[in-house]
Amino acid sequence: MLMIVDDPNFKPEQFAVACHIVCNGEILYVKRNTGRSQGGKWGSIAGKREEGEDNLNAIKREVKEEIGLEFKDDDYKYVGTWKVKFNSQEKKCNYKSFTYYLYRVEIKEKPEIILSEDESKEYNWFTPQEALEQELFQDEDGVLRDIYGL
């Protein structure tokens, strides 16, 4: 189980980035392929930061890889950071903590989305309230509540 923590001595083993792409109050979510960590659940575009990447370049890469879109650096607005601990056996990975950096991109029209078949099987646009009614990645609901005061 994932758990957002408030620990001043937190030392993450991994760094993750995510992005809420927002159009007319709706957030673009992808449904992760079964067989992957958190498979069959909805979440924002996200992934691990690679060696030598900064957060901005990591999220730009993830957005392009997962949904085929590219935005300018200035389009990405930093939202916040969350510290997460979890059971590594349950998540089937070799680390048990990460720091999660969230960005937001506001767009005026919904673009054509080209899903990476390796990553996700579908996408949809949800208001924050509608997103909370979906089966979300663990702790995605906590992030939504933090950001939108829900």
> What is the count of structural domains?
1
Radius of gyration equals: 15 Å
Record field, number of beta strands: 8
Shape: globular
Q: What is the H/E string?
A: EEEEEHEHEEHH
Question: Which architecture per CATH?
Answer: Alpha-Beta Complex
User: Into which percentage range does the β-strand content fall?
Assistant: 35-45%
Summed up, the helix count is: 4
Helix content: 10-25%
Tell me, rounded to a whole number, the average pLDDT: 87
CATH class: Alpha Beta
**Class derived from helix and strand content:** alpha+beta
Superfamily at the CATH H level? Nucleoside Triphosphate Pyrophosphohydrolase
Distance between the termini: 22 Å
Quick one: biggest sheet?
8 strands, mixed
Sequence stretches where pLDDT stays below 50 over 5 or more residues: none
CATH topology: Nucleoside Triphosphate Pyrophosphohydrolase
